[in-house]
Design brief:
Length: 248
């Protein structure tokens, strides 16, 4: 089954209004690549302006609260993201799991809230270097992703991003065999947990030091349906070559 590739950028805590030109340029390039999907997940402060700067281009958030409203200082609800113009959101990024202690169950609740508001969701998973070196990466990440999925998942609304923590922002990329093996394992686990149809339609993205120079080698591996890109999503000059590699 052919899954459309998704190239999603995660700006993390980078970007102010003066950087929106990068999104405009990325958006214009995406219009020429009709076979792939593209999105940029910006800081919450930029969602509305990025949506206005690039009409028709998918802008996303980087986190969402599981509750619809309430006394949660500093948090953003799914409805607020939609109101600002977001169409997708990342949940369960390892930086949030590590820095804010987010559990699989909390990630699943966030994903459920986002889906209920009509957002697409990218659920992240990935192992630490210790886990990889102990030989437990497949088992750990397989369990993590299954436990991070919400109960109800409308068709085509959820993607998974496999991001080995040791490859994020380090310039170290997982090897082709490691990526292929993990993605195949995750698809198998998704199949066992949610059925073959769900497993086959769910995009599994790779993330961790993806750049224009390595994207072509990663994006056409079996079971790799796109990329979640950090540093190289911050400028059009670096992001567009990754989009082009996906479209080849
Ligand atoms: O964490 C990532 C994307 O969510 C990956 O970041 P880098 O591409 O900067 O390694």
């Amino acid at each position: 089954m052919a899954r459309r590739k998704l190239i999603a950028g995660n700006w993390k805590m980078h970007g102010i209004a003066g950087d929106l030109g990068e999104i405009t340029r990325i958006s214009m390039a995406s219009e020429t690549l009709s076979d792939i999907d593209t999105a940029i997940c910006v800081p919450a402060t930029l969602i509305e302006r990025a949506s206005e700067a690039a009409p028709g281009f998918v802008i996303g958030g980087q986190d969402v609260h599981a509750e619809p409203r309430g006394a949660f200082t500093g948090s953003i609800s799914a409805a607020m993201l939609v109101d600002a113009g977001a169409e997708t959101v990342i949940v369960g990024h390892s930086e949030r799991r590590e820095a804010f202690g987010e559990t699989d169950a909390q990630v699943a609740a966030k994903a459920a809230a986002a889906l209920a508001a009509g957002l697409d969701v990218i659920v992240c998973c990935g192992e630490s270097l210790d886990v990889r070196e102990a030989g437990n990466a497949l088992e750990t990440v397989g369990k993590q992703i299954v436990a991070s999925l919400p109960g109800e998942i409308p068709e085509g609304k959820l993607s998974v991003a496999y991001e080995p923590i040791w490859a994020i922002g380090t310039g170290k990329v997982a090897g082709p065999d490691e990526i292929r093996e993990m993605h195949a394992h995750l698809r198998g686990e998704l199949g066992k947990a949610r059925g073959e149809t769900f497993a086959n339609e769910t995009k599994i993205l790779y993330g961790g030091s993806v750049k224009g120079e390595n994207a072509g080698d990663i994006l056409h591996l079996d079971h790799v349906d796109g990329a979640l890109v950090g540093g190289a999503s911050l400028t059009a000059d670096q992001f567009i070559p990754i989009m082009n590699a996906a479209a080849r």
